[in-house]
Sequence to fold (1353 residues):
Amino acid sequence: MSTRDRRWRMLLATLLAAVLTAWASPAAMAQNYVPISGAGSTWSFNALDQWRKNVLQYGMRISYSGTGSTDGRNQFKAGQVDFAVSEIPYGLMDNGVRDSPPTNRGFAYMPIVAGGTSFMYNLTIGGKRVTNLRLSGEVLAKIFTGAITNWADPAIKADNPGLQLPARKVVPVVRSDGSGTTAQLTMWFAAQHGGIWDAYCRKAGRSAPCGSTSDFPITPAVVGQSGSLGVTSYVRQQQSEGSITYVEYSYARNAGFPVAKVLNQSNYYIEPTAQSVAVALLQARIAPDLTQDLRSVYTSRDRRAYPLSSYSYMILPTTESGKFNRDKGRTLSDFAYYFLCEGQQQADRLGYSPLPINLVTAGMQQVARIPGSTRQRVDISKCNNPTFSRDGSNTLARTAPNPSECDRKGATQCAQGTGGARQETPVGTGTGRGTGTGTGTASRGQGTANQTGGPAGNTGTDPAAQSGQTGDSATGPQSQAAIDPETGEVIGGTEVLGASAIPVSVQLRDNNFVLLSVLAVVLLTGLIIGPPLIARALRRKEGP
Amino acid sequence: MMRPLPRLLLALVLVAAGPALLTVPAQAATGSAVTVAGSGPFDGLRVTVSQTRDLINQTVRVSWKGGTATGPAGNFGMNYLQIMQCWGDAATGPTREQCQYGGLAAQSAPSAGDYVRLRQVSYGRTLGDGDPKETYLPSDGKQAVVPFTSAGGKTTAETGEFFDAGTTNEIPLAKTRLDGTGEVDFEVQTALESYGLGCGNVLGNGKPRSCWLVAVPRGATEVNGRPVGTEGMPNWLVSSPLSASNWQHRIAVKLDFRPVGSSCPLGAAERPTSGHEFIADAMLRWQPALCAGGGTVFGFTQVPDAIARGQLAGAEPGLTYVTLPVAPDAVPPDRRMVYAPVALSGLALAFVTERQSAGEGVVPEDVWRRDGQLINTMNLTPRLVAKLLSQSYAWSIPGRPEHLAGNPASLTKDPDFLAINEEFKTYGALMSIVDAVVPSGDQDMTELLWSWVNADREARAFLDGEPDKWGMKVNPNYGKLALPISNFPKSDLACWQPGTLVETCALTLHPPANDMHEAGRAISRGDTLGKAPSGLATPDGQPELKRVERQPQGSRGLIAVVDTATAARYGLATARLRTASGDFVAPTNSALLAGAGAMRPTPVPGVQAPNTQAKTKNAYPLVNLSYATTAPAVLTTQAGAEYADLIRFAVGPGQTPGVAAGQLPDGYAPLPAALRAKARSAADAIERQAGKPLTANGADNNGDAGTGGSAGNLPPTGDYSAGTSGSSPGGTANGVGGTDEDLAAALGVPHPATAPDGSSVTPPRASAGRTPAMPLGWLRYGLAAAFVLGGLAAGGSPLLQRLSMRLRR
Fold:
């Protein structure tokens, strides 16, 4: 009898046995879980919703509505939910008002999942989606405060030497509802780019210094949408080209959209992957109540760190009250145990980053304070968390790869896609000496691609460095001419058409016919007058 | 015919607020329907509960006849039923203290009397002398409230500890139609959903606790004996159903439960699986059966197909569920993919439509008397679907903008629709179906839906801007929509009265749902998910948004794009779609099976893809066959064995339709034997190949590649290319009739995320920006030639000149 058959029979037998015991023996009936409910953060909704579904098989019934962090905190305060999820704690000053903590029920903060607040954008060059945009903090602050209004802005260009960005209007899309994501973003603005942020706040009629706020000050410079899904849906529409918003990484990934790589303190542009978030959060300072101080995360010197990394929190009851009793505490403590350990395994797949061991341990101590908790003593070694290692270091952070050289601030730019859009965007090197016309740039770009490959010679693609598993070994990193691995063509051939400067008027919708017609005329003109002009220029330089 | 089969919904996922107002009958699957007659003033009333034995957490249909129509028109003033679940071990039935009621105290819509949703039975001066039969009386300035006693023995006057708006299943207002009949779907709860009731918990005698369904009929007389609307009385009922005089006419039906089953042990390491939403309901059912008796605990993570394919090429492939396979050139050289078909379902346009004629005085009595009854049949053509998905009905954009002028207001005003849906001519009069609630994420099946639309000449012409024969034009924001795409765009971002406190935007008013389950649940509750300005300002002076009120039961009219399992779960009817052969076919089990039989080969041998243009009789065009996929070479042997077991279970016991743990939920068609055999041999291949790296030449080192049908080597060219050569003569950009095109499109390039971190397959993600073939034609090549020439000339001429100069010297 094969092992397979044996296993099969065993399965059947155990199934049968399970059914029989369920029918026959009352002793087999463990104490059931009672349903509990929570509300709050949309930033962490995608993780919570999945955990909620997975614990159905353990007999738990959890309901969670992603109504926004502010609403979650309010509902918890009013005793309407058993737990809340929020990116920020109670007690912060927001727009001159203090968000006071609940007075009639005890509570504690417990980190539940980490992630990167990402900048999802919708941008094309010549009809092809840009997937490798890079932005520095200052540029982001200026974008979301209306100080930079055009994608062709030199400041954006400085971040993206390999892209010829269109002269298209920048449309910053922000959350119109009370949001922890907004609080995270504005906390970063306030800490890192206070001047730009305060100036905007004043313009929006708020008092400065503005600090962090859950309610983004809406001015005509920004578009407001409700909920993480709301801003995501807005940005992804074809009509929203030129827009950019901030959401947890998973939203961009699920929408199949790229996110901006953000410049860190070590001058690398980093994507908010599970690993880059884990690395950055090594610098998080955790207060005794487990709330986070992210200022050192923003300035992490590790070149692998994503600056806008943070944790999301569950607000747990530590006292019985109104509708919260020890029975519910039992469910909540087991649910918490599940997602602090096993649930973290899913974090990466969901677009988040798993919690490190110190926070899981600290979180467990909070779980023990829940009335009716089943988790008074927890053997942390049994906790199946992907970041744990024997020596206590964070596995994920330890194994995080270094960024590619093309991600460094400078003359080169990686072609690699990001977020949910992994396809490459062809890059050229900077065209510095702008000759003015489209022709000049196009042909010059083609020429320089071969000559000025930069130290690593990876102007184009860098398959090997990015992921150890690329298909065709033939196109290794040895050649310095940027060869597209699928087409086998030199990037800068016809691809330059797509990637380089085609002045697009802000109003003009992308229309290939118009674009190509214009281009045709420009090219033909260039063909006729280009050679003599260049020849003359060269001759002049050589001298008589 | 879509005869609503037993709709026994294992509503395992209990999300937020509200009673389960579901819509398609849960017929007595077990033949345990019970009918009970009313008493006293309600002696003509007959209440039937569709299933009363072997219950789990599911919905049952409660229907009645011989009632008096709820009124006055459109309101819950009088003559309605109040339905709740109670526990009570006595044979005489439950006491009112044992009933789960009062959880919706804060609910305000639809509006009804002040106390009808409460447990409070003292009414101040509203009802003068009050209820003479009442034993709970106000004292010490406190109102009289009927306390709740839990099955565990705790008595409390506070609601919220045992149930609240988020968990209760009570239906405080159930409408009796003009013909004296009525029906609602009621979610019965086990101890897991309501521990205050403890139904299904095994008692000392070894038997599971039975519970009760209680309907309190309400007439037009108040508890003080006086008819509503008479002098000194309110014009509507105000008292609680738990008031003694109301409670005495209760109708109680005993509910026998299955014992609440044991669950998986917490703390075991889960074996991860992930993939598209189409498998979610089946996984929820299989998980507790797979873990029983010490079996593997499987986790499931819902991700879009494309992300799942990316994962298969990544470091940890796990087991993922996809519709379309990984393109052969995107498979890393260190592995082979193995595909096992495990579940057959479909993508549906699900709907809930209740008859809404022009009303009394406008249409004859025998017509308006049927108002509020469900319509369960709807025919849709690709063009109608295109209209619904392109924001083209005039009312789909707030403020009836200029660019939609001349278009019908809504689906039921569209002669194109009415021509094939006779019944809606009369009963769609007051409906306003302007679009479909769609999921926000990317899906392969969405792409196939668009292929089905794109292949239809009329639909494509409509999208290209050609008016239909009644003059309706596509919303110009969708101009020449390039198809297929894997999501549902909401391209019209128009706002009405921008800059004011009542600024209303199309995207906010008709947003996409998070996923198909949210979409299906929403429309079953009459919810569009939309938000609209409340008219008030936020502290920042911005318009404050609030949820659009739900459409009340009896006047719902909504459509959603969901999988057939979700449609079944929420009791939604599904539309009949026009097939390539011109028939209208609904996603019944037989139509799904016919569709599966007509599937087409893909570039991956042994893996088939849905054929949206199948001409097979009765074949549903949008079938989904979920492939459990993995790369055994990069798995551990244990993982391989466990995944193999999961697959064997899924295509074995997991294909038995039913409501119990381990069984196949409604909405999936049991797999035909051939596919099961395929899955089993794939499972064998996974177990055999797991943990064994491929040898250098790419062959499986144990030499059994290919034996598993869907497993094994992937030849460079599959039968697919042979079968589909000669596609689309002339390459019409429209793809009219291009059945080959749509599959090629679906399988070939446009799967960006198939590419593992940028290894290969870099398709134009922005398919919308693809150059249309027609207007430029030759010009393209001319351009390319000019470009190359230009480049050569630019680079070459100075050289030539210098050369010539040198020669001259």
Q: What stands out?
A: The first helix of chain A runs from residue 3 to 24. Confidence is low (pLDDT under 50) at residues 14-30, 430-511 of chain A. The CA atoms of residues 298 and 307 of chain A lie 5 Å apart. Chain A touches chain B through 128 residues (CB under 8 Å).
